[in-house]
Amino acid sequence: MKKVFVSGDFNILHPGHLRLLKFAKDSGTYLIVGVHSDDISGKGISQDIRLESIQAASCVDEAFILDIPATQYIQKSKPDIVVMGKEHELKENPELEILANYGGKLLFSSGEIGFSSMDLLRQEFLSLSNNVTHSPNFIKRHDMKLETLKEIIEKFSSLKVLVIGDTIVDEYITCEALGMSQEDPTIVVSPLATNKFIGGAAIVASHARTLGAEVQFISVVGDDDNRDYVKDGLGDLGIESFLLCDSTRPTTLKQRFRANNKTLLRVNHLKQHSVSKDIETAILKKVQESIDTVDLIIFSDFSYGLLTDTIIKNITKLGKKKDIFMSADSQSSSQTGDITKFKGMTLVTPTEREIRLSLNDFTSGLVVLSEKLSKKSHAKYIFTTLGAEGIMIYNDPKKSFLTDTIDALGSLVKDVSGAGDSLLTCSSMALAVGADIWQSSYLGSLAAAVQVSRLGNVPIKKEEIIQELN
């Protein structure tokens, strides 16, 4: 670990300070900031307030009140690098001799223009303002009570959920747009910050956990740093994960390059070949060992090779034998993906496009599509997601009220990725605790609205859903 040290009064934390701190952080791996004590500073703002503002800077790893000269601290602690403002470069700097004695470096910089907005950029990811609107007509049509919906959410803590599917790591690279290249018509950007999120089937498991359930998660990852990121993230949530390492593939990584709140480019690092027979056997053995304690099985398929026909058929057979609720989503990134390979599910949540691809039908209306999918896959309930238009619900054909729709409940949309995962998770859990199709579809739509109101896949807490129902 390369430690970097910066010290100063930091009387009022301004963009110049933030640029300096960002430069210091980029120069090493661990940034330590010494805030001059009131005795040393002699400024009007108290040391506690100045320290608090430094601690709030996202690039600072450690901050403390410095009540001795910086040279004494450097001599005692021996940081690898000391960073000072550019204005000190032509002055006498006693730090140089101290650093030279043990091989440390002294760097001068005022940071780079544009980097001072780092903390504002991060607020884009930290903002949890949901801006959810309800559908009073749907609620009235199905005689739903908000108190009943809250009771359903509270029952989630009684569930034991098994999630199986493709793990994805989502990485957002926030950039500064520098303009157009002079050599060719290419947009030039400079990366400012990176934010990672657990995605794919792993976020489905995470949603289920933060909504209150006990969760087991089965997936395949590569032998790389992203495997450790996923493992640590799931462990922090208290999820029991069974991650099989496959040396023939990386942990799937999806990078989004963004500038000015817009996505410029997405780069996917993945392999889509089917897992080996050995991995199939290991997965089925794990499911066999766990099945007796499971109330709900969720298949989260991104067509990246984990959910083979052998795995799907064997787990589905076990689930039916034990009378376990099962749900599935099979996302189609291009022309691959087939929701009809999941037979006999309680719930499936495809997009309209995914149904059309599976059925090779690009002309029929939505209700006819649902009927065809129901007959081919024997799914009990179908929620067709329609993006900004919300979802269409296709009920059990034996029921008198066959179809209905819920308009999209999110009034502020920042990032649509993850909306389907949150709908699948929350609706499936609601059905598993006894909610009817209308209640479960509404709770799933609320979860999706919460998800799209923020950037990145952040696990939805049950308190957030309850808050929207108050």
Q: What this model shows, in words?
A:
Residues 160-456 form the Carbohydrate kinase PfkB domain. GO terms for molecular function: heptose 7-phosphate kinase activity; heptose-1-phosphate adenylyltransferase activity; phosphotransferase activity, alcohol group as acceptor. The protein has helices spanning 15-27, 38-41, 47-55, 70-77, 95-102, 118-126, 136-141, 146-154, 201-210, 225-237, 277-290, 309-321, 352-359, 366-377, 419-432, 437-452, 462-469, and strands at residues 3-8, 30-36, 62-66, 81-84, 105-108, 160-165, 167-180, 187-200, 214-221, 240-245, 252-259, 262-269, 296-301, 325-330, 347-348, 381-385, 391-394, 403-406. With 470 residues, it is α/β, with parallel strands linked by helices. The protein folds into two domains: 3-113, Rossmann fold; 121-469, UDP-N-acetylmuramoyl-L-alanine:D-glutamate ligase (3-Layer(aba) Sandwich), CATH 3.40.1190.20. A nine-stranded mixed sheet has the order 10-9-6-13-14-15-16-17-18, sandwiched between helices. α5 links the parallel β4 and β5. α9 crosses α15 (419-432). It is elongated.
Strands of the largest sheet, in order across it? 10-9-6-13-14-15-16-17-18
Tally of strands: 18
Measured between the Cα atoms of the first and last residue, the distance is: 48 Å
- Annotated CATH architecture of the largest domain: 3-Layer(aba) Sandwich
In percent, how much strand structure appears in the residues?
15-25%
- Report the C-alpha radius of gyration, rounded: 26 Å
Q: What number of structural domains do the residues give?
A: 2
Fold-level CATH name of the largest domain: UDP-N-acetylmuramoyl-L-alanine:D-glutamate ligase
The CATH superfamily of the largest domain is identified as Ribokinase
Question: What coarse outline follows from CA principal-axis ratios?
Answer: elongated
